[in-house]
Amino acid sequence: MSKNVDPTREQFDQFKALPRDTPIMMLNLIRLNPTATYPDGEAVTGAEAYARYGRHSGPIFQRLGGSIVWRGRPECVVIGPADEHWDIAFIARYPDAGAFMAMVTDEDYRKAVVHRQLAVADSRLIRMADASAGEGFGG
Fold first, then answer.
1. Measured at the alpha carbon of residue 110, what is the angle toward residues 15 and 10, in degrees to the nearest 5?
2. Contact, 60 vs 112, CB < 8 A?
3. Is the pLDDT at 1 greater than 60, yes or no?
4. How far apart are CA 127 and CA 139, in angstroms?
5. What are the beta bridge partners of residue 32?
6. Which of 22, 53, 60, 131 matches a 20 to 30 Å C-alpha distance to 111?
C-alpha cells in the first residue's frame, strides 16, 4: 500500500492550473499512524500529533477565511478497497484556491505541517468545486 501524505509535484501543478478565484472545498480522508516519533525522539500517538497540527495550523486556516463545513467519523468502506479505512474525514471550505495556496506557503504553516507528516499514515485530499445540490445523485 502506498503512503500518500504530501502531494506530488504533478498533483500540485494540476491544482495550481485550476481557477484560483472561486470557492473550493477540500475533502480530507486521514488514516493516522499508531505512533508518531519526532526527530528528538519524543513519541506520541498519531492522534496527538494530528491534534498538534490542528492547534498550530488552525489559526492560519481561519485567518485566511477557511472553515470546516462537514466532519464525520468513518465507520466502514462500503465500496472501495478493503484496506482503505479512515480515522478522520472532513470537508474544509476555502473562499478561493488562493487562500489554500497562501496557507500552504505560510512560514508558520510550514512549521505546523511537520506534525501532520508524522501523524498521517495515508490520506486523500480531493479538491472540489461548488455545485448545486439538486434532487438526485446525478445533479
1. 25
2. yes
3. no
4. 18
5. 120
6. 22
Set of cell numbers at residue 6: 504530501
pTM of the prediction? Answer: 0.88
C-alpha cell of residue 86: 479512515
Find, among 78, 85, 83, the residue nearest to 29 by Cα: 85
CA–CA separation, 88 and 86 (whole Å): 6
Nearest to 123 by CA among 28, 12, 15, 14: 28
Question: All 3 cell numbers of residue 78?
Answer: 462500503
DSSP 49-103: HHHHHHHHHHHHHHHTT-EEEEEE-----SSS-TT---SEEEEEEESSHHHHHHH
Strands 88-94 and 24-32 turn out to be: antiparallel
Helix (H, G, I), strand (E, B) or coil at 110: helix
- Look at strands 43-45 and 67-72 and give their pairing: unpaired
| CB-based contacts of 45, cutoff 8 Å, min separation 6 | 32, 34, 35, 36
- Which cell is 115 given? 506534525
Q: Across residues 130-135, what is the average pLDDT?
A: 73
Confidence at residue 82, expressed as pLDDT on a 0 to 100 scale: 85
